[in-house]
Amino acid sequence: MNENDLNLMLLMGEPILVSDGLHLHVPKLREIIAMSESKYNELLSALLFDKGNIDGLDDDRLTSFEVLFAYCFHNVEFKNIIFNALKLIFKEEAQMGDDGSNVFFYFDDSKKIDNSNFDFIQEVLKRANYIKVDNEPEFNPANSKAAQMIELIKKGKKSKPRPKETMNLHSIISGLAWKAKDVNIFSIFDLTIYQLYNGFYTTENIDNYHHTLQGIYAGTVDGKDIKFDQIHWAKILDK
To answer: Residue 144 pLDDT more than 60?
Structure first.
C-alpha cells in the first residue's frame, strides 16, 4: 500500500490491511476517552517501541520487534501492556509464539505479527496519530505526556523538562466541534483519532489561507513573494 492509498484509507476511517487478513483498526475518540487518554498513550507508546531509544542497545542482529518480544517474554507488566494494545487495534487476543527461527505474535486464525509487518504497523500508527518521532530518545504521542512504561525500560537516560502544552486532545476536540460546520459536539466522538487530527490541521490550513487573502485585499500583507500553490487550502498537509 503506497502512502497516498494509506492516507485515503485513514481518512475514510476504514481498517487497514496489514497482511493475510490482519486488519488494523484505528481507534475512535469514544474508545480512547473510555479507556482514558493517558492509558491510550501508554498503549500507543509501547507499540511504537524502538530499540534505538535504549542506551547501549546497538546490536544490529536484533530488530526492534525482536527486542520488544524479548521484553514481553521477561516482563509481565510490559507484556500485558502490549497485549492490551494489540487487542485495541486488532480486536483480537494475541498470543506469543516461535517456529524455531522466528518469533511472532499470533491470533486464533493464524494471523501473525512479526518482522515482516511490524514496521508497517508502526508506520500506520504514527500516521494515524500524527506523530513524528525524531532522533531523540523521547516519545511524544499525540502531543501528550510520554508513557511511563517506556521510561521504565530506558536506562541511563536523563530526564528533561517538557515545554508546557498549548493543546491537548480535549482542546482539539472542543475547538473542532464548535468551529467546524459539519462536525458537532455530538458527532465528533465517532471520528477516528486520525480524522480528528486531519480535520483540525485542515481547518487550521483553511483559516491561514483565508487570513492571508484577507490581508492581501486589505493591503496589510504583501502578496508579491507569496507562492499561492504553497498556501492553498487544499495543499498536502506536512504533518
So the answer is: no
